[in-house]
Design brief:
Length: 361
């Protein structure tokens, strides 16, 4: 039976003036709407107790399984307001499928795609006034997540799990706007390894990336690119985004999915759109030598990162302890064409010919 999410309204919602103040300058992940979607799973009863209720803390016992064994997953997608006031989601089915894939890897229960979509839709509907206008690339960021909520100390899959969706008005992920960022490259640290959880969207991967991320900050970089740490012969992804390279002959290259790289929804969208923009796509192994030598010799002319939060962000240089490889200042024709193509679909500025957008309000 499909889940329904009956509404219990927040008795103390933010005032219209408070919401307007937030939407004027939301930042990213700083503010949250008045409500959240919640459902509970148990081994005996399956999914139950689904509802939309006031946003607020969970009660987690000190022996709650997620605190000790990290059994949790999450997703990220956005709701976009179009010029006519309607609100749409971008490829929510892809996020729902990836949540199922992550759940299988982390021994969490599967949530049906339609139940995922209903939770997101009902939350966006009740908090629709929190969705910003499109100006400045603003949107409502949605964070579905699932965590082990059983009280026990023992290494096994939890028999009680909580699923929730929260929402946060957001501006651009990088406060500086659309300009090339510098990337720190590490082969000392890994966000995930072969046979591990790299293809699942779970918090442990992000926690593992933080030490390299902060090393990058110390060298003036905004993000970190991981080289596979054991063989040191394979470019993987950034701490929270996929990476693409553009060659002088019009080829768009991204590392192949090997089980250690997250299959990004934006990544998939870029690969689909690239052909229409005159680019040939390749998903394959990229070595560090190919990356650095290609930049130095002019074969690689652009690079960018992509993800739900950051969309498409141009890369200005790659840095290591040995030096810097700076990309040419060529106006970023391929990067910006791809970026604009995705944003035009998301914000309804062009026709959606692929059925990627789902109207919710």
């Amino acid at each position: 039976m499909s889940l329904t999410y009956p509404l219990t309204r927040n008795p103390q919602p933010k005032t219209p003036d408070q919401v307007a103040s937030v939407l004027a300058d939301p930042g990213f992940g700083n503010y949250f709407t008045d409500h959240m979607a919640v459902a509970t799973w148990t081994a005996d009863a399956g999914w139950t107790d689904s509802e939309i209720r006031p946003y607020g803390p969970f009660h987690i016992d000190p022996a709650g399984a997620v605190l000790h064994y990290g059994q949790e997953i999450f997703e990220g997608l956005k709701a976009y307001r179009h010029a006519d006031g309607s609100i749409h989601l971008f490829r929510p089915e892809a996020n729902a499928r990836r949540l199922q894939t992550s759940a299988a890897r982390m021994m969490l229960p599967s949530l049906e795609i339609e139940d995922f979509f209903t939770a997101v839709t009902e939350l966006v509907t009740v908090d629709a006034h929190w969705v910003p206008d499109a100006e400045g690339e603003k949107s409502l960021y949605l964070r579905p997540f699932m965590f082990a909520d059983e009280v026990f100390l023992g290494v096994r899959a939890a028999q009680r799990v909580t699923f929730s969706v929260i929402a946060s008005p957001s501006g651009p992920y990088f406060a500086g706007g659309v300009k090339p960022v510098d990337i720190w490259v590490t082969d000392s640290y890994a966000r995930a390894g072969a046979g591990g959880t790299g293809a699942a969207k779970c918090g442990g991967n992000y926690a593992a990336s933080l030490i390299a991320q902060y090393e990058g900050y110390q060298h003036g970089c905004s993000q970190v690119l991981f080289i596979e740490a054991s063989g040191k012969d394979r470019v993987e992804e950034l701490g929270g985004m996929n990476v693409f390279l553009v060659t002088a002959d019009g080829t768009l290259i991204t590392p192949a999915l090997t089980g250690t790289i997250l299959e990004g929804v934006t990544r998939s969208s870029v690969l689909t759109l690239a052909g229409e923009l005159g680019l040939t796509t390749e998903e394959r192994q990229v070595t560090p030598d190919e990356l650095f030598t290609g930049i130095r010799e002019g074969r690689i002319t652009e690079a960018f990162s992509c993800g739900t939060a950051a969309v498409v962000t141009p890369i200005g240089s790659f840095r290591t302890a040995e030096g810097e490889w700076r990309l040419p200042e060529n106006g970023l024709p391929a990067t910006l064409a791809i970026r604009n193509a995705i944003l035009d679909i998301q914000y309804g500025r062009v026709a959606d010919t692929r059925g990627w957008m789902r109207r919710v309000v």
